[in-house]
Amino acid sequence: MILSRLARSGRGGIVLLVLGLLAALVLPWLIYPPVALDIACWALFAAAVDLLLGFTGLLSFGHAAFWGGSAYCTGLIVLHGGMPFPVAIIGGALFAALLALPIGLLSVRLTGIYFAMVTLAFAQMIYFVANQWRDVTGGENGLQGIPREFLGLDLSDPFFFYYAGLPFVLAGLFAAWRIVRSPFGRVLVSIRDNPARARALGYPVERYRLLAFVLSAALAGTAGGVFAIGHGFAALDGLYWTTSGQVVMMVILGGIGTLWGGAIGAAIVVQLQDFLATAGFEGVGIVTGSIFIVIVLLFRRGIWGTARHLLISRRQADPPVSPAAGAAEEPVESPEPAPAPASPHPAGD
């Protein structure tokens, strides 16, 4: 009842933002701080992938290149450049965006499985380069001992670094939220639903896709940079294709095209992996894969996507409140029109 009233009043989005911010602030008090940092970083990574998958209609299996590439770039800036970690994280995000530009130019003209395979091929090429360029990347050993000092403060304690890295994650999530709610985001949704119609209306489809690809890579790079500084190393696994597969799984678990669903998927996967690893269980992939299959079969829109769909259905099914019945309450706005059949995941959530 409370959620239904909030949805009809148009304040549901603001309430969700406040609740999400509070959850992010108290998270290291509730769980192990390094795990809390992992959830925050993977949540931003999932939002970056959902920006491309849910709102542009492009499935990328190569986003590990931007996550891992930014991690290496951030580590190198700190280790060899002597820069503070905020500058290094920004530098890693810019590196990811620049790396995405040539990859996007060669990929965005493709769609579907072809786009996914091309991005996967590029990511594996970057993985091979990082593995062979041992003098710079450390090869299989990666970059070790990345410091976490800033303005003379020692942030080696994971609890304190969580709050130092959280502003970057929140800024990235806010940027993704603003993108999907902007006119640019509406054009992306129209391109996702009907590229031919968008092209007939005069929108340069490939240019919009390329910009979305670069923005998504920059957000993924921000998450990878915070992750590398938080853990003090940049590992070769961050560039491997399984990293891309894992973040896609998080997006699907939470709900494609919901943006915030990725945070839920990230929390579930990271917490489950930490619990199973702590318990000494070696078949982590079996458990996470089984849960993924069950959720996909039972919740076709994902966890948050299903909850949002039920809330919208409830709002549309509620009869309008008469003036006499609602005199003691605040005025309620008329319900929004139902989403078009061609857009199963409305933008802006």
UniProtKB/TrEMBL annotation:
The keyword Membrane applies. One of its GO terms (cellular component) is plasma membrane. Coiled coil: none annotated. It comes from the Bacteria. InterPro entries: ABC_transp_permease, LivM-like. CDD domains: TM_PBP1_LivM_like. Residues 317-349 are annotated as: Disordered. It is a multi-pass membrane protein. Its main location: membrane. One of its GO terms (molecular function) is branched-chain amino acid transmembrane transporter activity. Residues 334-349 have a biased composition (Pro residues). The chain crosses the membrane at residues 12-31, 43-66, 87-106, 112-130, 160-180, 210-235, 247-269, 275-299. It is found in: Cell membrane. Keywords: Cell membrane, Membrane, Transmembrane, Transmembrane helix. PANTHER family: ABC TRANSPORTER ATP-BINDING PROTEIN (PTHR30482:SF17), HIGH-AFFINITY BRANCHED-CHAIN AMINO ACID TRANSPORT SYSTEM PERMEASE (PTHR30482). This is Amino acid/amide ABC transporter membrane protein 2 (HAAT family).
